[in-house]
Amino acid sequence: MAVPELTPEELLTTTRSVRKRLDLDRPVAPELIEECLRIALQAPSGSNRQGWHWIVVTDPELRAGIAGYYRKGATAYLAAGGASAAGYEGERAATQARVSDSARYLAENMHRVPVLLIPCLEGDVTQIPPQVQAGFWGSLLPAVWSFMLAARLRGLGTAWTSLHLGYSREVAELLGIPPGYSQGALIPVAHTIGTTFRPAPREPLETVLHHDRW
């Protein structure tokens, strides 16, 4: 499936969290994932340490195991009101309702996603002082975003998820992640159903912009 050529602005504004439009029945060629990861490796990292590692999970049993832990985390999150429309009105409430519905859909179908990507970073985040944790994750998050942008250009959909991290120890054991490495996210990857994505509705810039002071 060819993706229309995108300008940089179109790429940045139409790379969405894809859940219901993931094609759960179409395999993803390993070469596509590796192309995206090579691009991701060009991202900056603190002191150029490049301490990232990438676990590409396609084995059905391993995907099912990861999905089971994700489902537990998502169930608790949604039950607590995460992603709900409560407190919103009008179109924003409708948008949040759709987000909640799609989050539930992904939790129920994560095991069917053909590729699960878990980016890891050297270092145990539980042992890192709070004042430097932003820098720690800053050595991984830009690379993951680069992967997601590269995936969009290749007709692949992704979504940033992290609800499995409540069971990170169990997932580490399942995948053989050694001590001293921290999981940063769980990225489902699949071809998309259709390639047309639009910019999402956002609050006006004026409501979040501050000059010099809050």
TrEMBL record:
CDD domains listed in its UniProt record: Nitro_FMN_reductase
UniProt KW keywords: Oxidoreductase
Single GO molecular function: oxidoreductase activity
UniProt entry tagged with the keyword Oxidoreductase: yes
Database matches in Gene3D superfamilies: NADH Oxidase
Record bears the keyword tRNA-binding: no
Domain named Nitroreductase: residues: 14-189
Stored Pfam families: Nitroreductase
Family, similarity comment: Belongs to the nitroreductase family.
PANTHER family xrefs: NAD(P)H NITROREDUCTASE YDGI-RELATED, NADH DEHYDROGENASE_NAD(P)H NITROREDUCTASE XCC3605-RELATED
Protein name per the record: Nitroreductase
Species: Parafrankia soli
